[in-house]
Amino acid sequence: MAGGDVVDVLVVGLGVTGAGVALDAASRGLTVAAVDAHDLAFGTSRWSSKLVHGGLRYLAGGHIALAYESAVERDILLRRVAPHLVNPLPSVLPLTPLISGPRAALTRAGFVAGDALRAAAGTPASRLPRSRRITPAEVHRLVPAVRRAGLRGGLIGWDGQLIDDARLVVALARTAAGHGARILTRCRVTELHGAGATVVDTRTGQEHRFRARAVVNATGVWAEQLDPGVRLRPSRGTHLVLRPGALGAQTAALTIPVPDETSRFVFALPQPDGRIYLGLTDEPVDGPVPDVPEPSAAERGFLLDVLATAVDTAPSEADVVGAFAGLRPLLAGAADSTADLSRRHAVHTSPGGVTTIVGGKLTTYRRMARDGLDAALTANGLPLGRCRTARLPLVGAAPPERLAMIAAPARLVARYGTEAPDVAALAAGDPALAEPLAAGIAVTGAELLWGLLREGALDEDDLLDRRTRIGLVPADRDRALPAARSAVDRAAAATGP
């Protein structure tokens, strides 16, 4: 690129949308370069609830078209694009005394409408079962911590859950690279225009000029910095990480309506390691956008307080082992609250020829990428070609029945799909690489090495914070840091300078 090659499409930003654009363009046969100032999934795309959802909240707000779009994209991810990374997740809304009869009936109607959208999107009930009302005993079997006094049963629905949002981005970027895209991390764009960009290699300090026939700005909450014509009103979504057992042996998500709100919920989401992710806040963010947002004390208190309305023994700060926050790139609008701003994405092409994609959400990244790429190609008189991503499996993807037959540990299959045996094989010459890094940390040394050799990780931060997510719990990160540094040295020795 620095030597003067001209690509058809230059993508700035390698979160889920930018990686999606890179894959869409490369799979259409276009030449592509995609750059990021940091790493794959460095920004908002690693701070989500890890849900691929059908838009029940949007139904509650009357946004039927947006909910249908979410249901369609959920089906595409769940059954074709990334079935190795997305699993069905039951979600229980307990009917406690705080939920009146009329509100329960309205919520049940929303669940039924969600079933209709699921069917309309083509998702079979064998993959995502229909919603139904369940007894108090069933509620407690799935979510033992739910308050027993006055419980009238619950409503159960099903959605999709990602094993890891950052792994989705890594799979997108690697699949794009397999189609010829040039994926370049640690390249900060300092100037962007319709014919390319000025970039700085942050590892060397060298400045280069990249040339392209079409340019897509997919930098999320940082989009205004490269396209002043876009007006955003970011909001912060915070999650707490609760220790294993904080809510008992929970096997379903717990959905809790926020008191005095009609379409806001807090979710307690079980994870494979036994921890619980508790979210989600919606707080406006003013001023400069930080690279890594920090949860506020008020948000932490809000989440624990809402959880306390639905359980017998509420977790406290002592049960919180980590926290993370992401910034939503919401379009500025007339609503007073960011919670009321639309989650629909928008595409804007500047007079200088830069196409910017903003808004939206993780579930609909593929649709956002398609719309943004189409707009960029049209604005520059380039042939559109045919979008193939709705039926293009990501690296590692396979149907559930095939995944179940793979000869590798189930935990590796859930994270790497068909590549799990290759990850495990890295320990063939050194059995220590197959061992967990430390007590309570299931990640192995082989996974760290795989991240460096095959997934574009360059240092221990990439490994701990994005390829494995150990960093979501600071104490675990500290314990795993020596192993990550050792893996970096080992990979460098294996590949050379």
Keywords:
alpha+beta; ten-stranded mixed β-sheet; eight-stranded mixed β-sheet; 15 helices; 497 residues; 33% helix; globular
Beta strand %? 15-25%
**What can be said about the biggest beta sheet?**
10 strands, mixed
Distance between the termini: 21 Å
Helix count equals: 15
Mean pLDDT: 93
Low-confidence stretches: 334-342
Structural class: alpha+beta
Percentage of helical residues? 25-40%
- Taken from the alpha-carbon principal axes, the silhouette is globular
In short:
This protein is of the alpha+beta class.
Written account of the structure:
The protein has helices at residues 16-27, 56-60, 64-81, 101-121, 136-142, 165-178, 223-226, 297-308, 365-379, 400-403, 410-416, 420-425, 445-454, 460-467, 474-495; strands at 6-12, 32-35, 51-52, 86-94, 132-134, 154-162, 182-184, 187-193, 196-201, 207-217, 235-242, 253-257, 265-270, 276-279, 283-284, 320-328, 346-349, 354-358, 436-438, 441-444. With 497 residues, the protein is α+β, with helices and mostly antiparallel strands. Strands 3, 4, 5, 6, 11, 12, 13, 14, 15 and 16 form a ten-stranded mixed β-sheet that branches. Strands 1, 2, 7, 8, 9, 10, 17 and 18 form an eight-stranded mixed β-sheet that branches. Helix 1 (16-27) packs parallel to helix 6, helix 13 packs across helix 15 and helix 14 (460-467) crosses helix 15. The protein is globular, with a radius of gyration of 22 Å.
